[in-house]
Amino acid sequence: MIGLCLVLVGLCGLGWVGYQYVGTNVVADQQQASEKQRLREEWATGNPEPGTDPSGEATTKAGIVPGTAVALLRIPRFGDDYEVPLVQGTTPEDLSRGVGIYDNAAAPGAVGNFSIAGHRITHGEPFSRLLELKAGDQVIVETRTEILTYVLDTAPADLTVDESAGWVLDPVPGKPGEKPTRELITLTTCQDLFHSPDRSVAFGHLESRQKK
Question: In the chain, what are the domains?
Fold first, then answer.
């Protein structure tokens, strides 16, 4: 009986690991596809999304449901097929639906720090290849009204911080209290493939914007 119990415990453990590393990706892929479709349909109707004025320009995050897609993210280095939804919030549930936007982040294309986070492994793995990025790589954000092209100033593999290092999310990273004057972007992800308190971080700036 003891041997049987140990076998059952082992099988349950293997099942849990299998779900985390395979099952969560399947579920996340479905959720992300659904969010992208919903967002494009919403844009096509011309109805302003929550937190925007009638012209579609971002004004406030008030009224945006956490986990709801508000923009699309493309990174050319990852290939033409790479496109994931940018969702409001960075809770585990939010991050299972796409790349999350920190609650204190500036709006896409706005002056300040547009800071985002994504998983490297499990839950869709949108940032699985993030550490391949180099300074000079582009990060493209599509909103209802614009195509925003950011360029990285640093490589994520070059900076590792503890998860408590809130300075990377400041309006001007590393300069607390300073008023921002530029449109910045910060990308964060787990430094290790397994659970870790360390975060890899890359900084960039807005290079161009194109009206749709």
Answer: 2-211 (2.40.260.10)
